[in-house]
Amino acid sequence: MVRETRLAPEDFIYPLFVAPGNGLRRPIASMPGVFHLSVDTLVPECAAAMGDGVGAVLLFGIPETKDARGSEAWADDGIVQQAVRALKRELPDLLVITDVCLCEYTDHGHCGLIEAGCVVNDATLPLLARTAVSHAAAGADMVAPSDMMDGRIGAIRTALDEAGLANTALMSYAAKYASAFYGPFRDAAGSAPAFGDRRSYQMDPANRREAIKEVKLDIAEGADIVMVKPALSYLDIVADIRALTDLPVAAYNVSGEYAMIKAAAQNGWIDEKRAVLEMLTGIRRAGADIILTYHAREAARWLLLRDG
Ligand code: PBG
After folding, report:
1. In this structure, is residue 4 part of a structural domain?
2. What is the rounded distance in angstroms from the CA atom of residue 304 to the CA atom of residue 133?
C-alpha cells in the first residue's frame, strides 16, 4: 500500500534484432537470451512477449549488405520494413517502434555520412528522414532516432507530416551519451565504428547541463517521448529530465548493463531475478515512465508471478 514506485510489464519496450533469413534464431554471445531473429521467428517471439504482458517492441535491423550511405536503411524491402509489415499484419495490437539510425547500415559503422574523415551532421538529416518515412509507411507506430545528429527530430517530424504520416509518433534518443555500455550491442548489430569513435555526436558522460539542452531542443522540434541512454550511470539525468518536462520520459537499460547482470548471474554471483527487478525499479524511481530493456519478457513474467 505504501510502495511509491510500481513496475509493470506495460512499462517495458522490448528491443529485438531482425536479420535476413528463414527460421533464424542465432544467439548473440555477449547478450545471453538475445537472438538475431528472421521475420518468421520474430513474429512468434513478439506474440509470446504480448502473452507476457509486454505491449511494445523496438526493432533493429541487420541488413544483407552495407554501403557508405547506409542505403538499406530506407529500402522499401529492407529488413525492418519487411518485419514491420509482418508484425502489423499478424499482431495488429502490438506497438511497433523502429530504430532510425544509419550505423547498422553503413560500411564504416558511423551513424551519419562521412566527408573528409568526419561525420557530417546536416547532410545526414535527409537520409534519416527518408528512413523514418519508409518505416512509418510500412506501418511503424513510432520511430525512434538514435543517431544524435542535431536537428533530426525537426527534419523527421516535417518529413512524416509532409508524407501524410502525421499520426506516427516520435521517441527521441534525446540525451544519449558516448558510452562503453553499448559494447555488446555493437557486436550484435555489427555497428562498431571502423575508425574513430562517436564522441563528435554522442554526449560526454561528464555533462549534465548538456542533457537539459539536448532534451529542450528535441521537445521544441516535436518529440513525443524523450529518452535518456544509458540508464544506470545516468539516473540523475533521468531525474533531471523528469523534472524538466511533462512529456513521457524513457530510459534505455542498454546491452552492457544487461550483459553485466547475465554474466554475474551465470557465475552464481548475484540473484538474477532480484537484481533485475531492483534495477528496473530504480530506473522507474528516478523518474522514467518507460524502460527499454532486453529483460522485458523475463521481468514481465517475474512480475506476474509475484502479483499472482
Ligand atoms: C545505434 C544504437 C546503439 C544503441 C542503440 N542504437 C549503439 C550505438 O550508439 O553505438 C545501443 C543499444 C544498446 O547498447 O543496448 N546508434
Report:
1. no
2. 37
